[in-house]
Write a structure and sequence with these properties.
With 286 residues, the protein is an alpha/beta fold. It has two domains: 178 residues, NAD(P)-binding Rossmann-like Domain (Rossmann fold), CATH 3.40.50; 87 residues, N-(1-d-carboxylethyl)-l-norvaline Dehydrogenase, domain 2 (Orthogonal Bundle). It has eleven helices and eight strands. Helix 1 crosses helix 2 and helix 7 packs across helix 10. The radius of gyration is 19 Å and the shape is globular. The protein starts with 6 loop residues before the first strand and ends in a 17-residue tail after the last helix.
Length: 286
Amino acid sequence: MNSTTARIGIVGLGTMGAGIAQVCIEAGFDTVAFEASAAVRETAAARIAHFIGRKVEKGTLAPETAEAALGRLTRVAQLAGLAGCDLVIEAVFEDLEVKRALLGELDAVVSDEVVLATNTSALSVTSIAAGSARPARVVGMHFFNPPPLMPLVEVVRAELTSDEAFAAAYRLAEQLGKQPVGCADTPGFLVNRMLIPLLNDCVRVLDEASVSPADLDRALEAGAGWPLGPARLLDLIGLDVHVQASEALYSRLREPRMAPPPRLLRLVEAGKLGRKSGEGFYRYSS
């Protein structure tokens, strides 16, 4: 695969899929993005154009470079539109059966040599790969939210992932300007295995120590050198996303620290999901 000719496929244009697509087109890759919902396709295109436009406004991206990047994105409403891709990254809903079924559908669309990467934060890549008739070509590529800003990509080797598929995903992450880290298919991979229980502990301390989210953040930023306090970080990640990942890890490991704290569950039930909903631990203006 080389960066001047490779065509990348993206499945799903939600927050993560749109962000990954933006990273791909800015890195010079022709990118074909499948999304069944016309409304989501339009929202994603507007979102990508907005964030690339912001770079032009700030002077970090030339107008002609931005225009060329946007021209590299093709949105399709049928999976068949991914037929000419060299590597496909799925970024659909974090549900094992949904992802397994999708890989089976992709088997019928792309050639046998195409690497299928799954962007999952907590599910087993090995279990997802079981949905494909050719699991050796399935690899995990865990982008962090938001993909255009976060430099890390965890490249996850499942039980049957071939050396060639792993190398292709690792090389792509480098070509996208990211910092890839290779790891085995363990629950939570690397970062979430450590970060999820830590953030859960921080939320529990809010109640146990009768401290405000602002003071908690100030304590970790000033006392432990965190660039962003835990409450603000959770608001950025999305409280629903964190809860979903916590529940997935808890179901596999049964470690109490992995289970989402009641306070987080109440916030999610109230629709307070963080920045994306306008309110989480903090309120945000639009």
